[in-house]
Give the backbone structure.
Amino acid sequence: MEYDLNMVDDVVSTRARLLAAAERLFLDKGYEQVSVRAINAEAGLNPGAVHYRFGSREGLIAALLEQELSPLWADRLDVLSRRSRGEGEPFEVGDLVTALVEPFEELSRSEKGRMLCHLLARSALRSGRLINVSTWFGAAPFEVMLGRALPHLPVRQVADRWRLAFTLLLEVYGRAVTPAPAAAAPLPETATVVAFITAGLTAPPHP
């Protein structure tokens, strides 16, 4: 049993070292300039460590994003999911949008946060979902909540509207990393983003 516990500790330690190394390199050099070889070297591990622990560079990035971003969204989205099922306070589309936008705005205030937003945008815009991560990184639970709030909309329109809304959020907050917010065009006010996306999601159905 002692041997097994040591094995578990080693796996956890190796994953943590790789994730910490990737974060340092992404902050220092930018997403596009960091290779799997560089991450392994930065962590002081053998050249196959990333693929052995995460399956691929994309798997490591997904794990990093879940580790850093899930705590920002999970609790508030769990509450909203229950409300959309009729538990607790009434559910409004604007509540869902606010619960998504506010963490993005918080992240945009720091260099690390902007880096994570950029990673999320680069990863999620390719396929619409991150691999091997929790439920909240996919579209399905959001489409379900939106459909419950807007039962007059066909399922296809709900899915299309959600995809457009989330793509817009990733484009706004996932822009290329810059040294400081002042170095890039200023982000729109949070209230403006929430109002704009809510209006799009709740617009009357098209013929």
About this structure: The chain has a mean pLDDT of 87. Residues 63-201 form one domain.
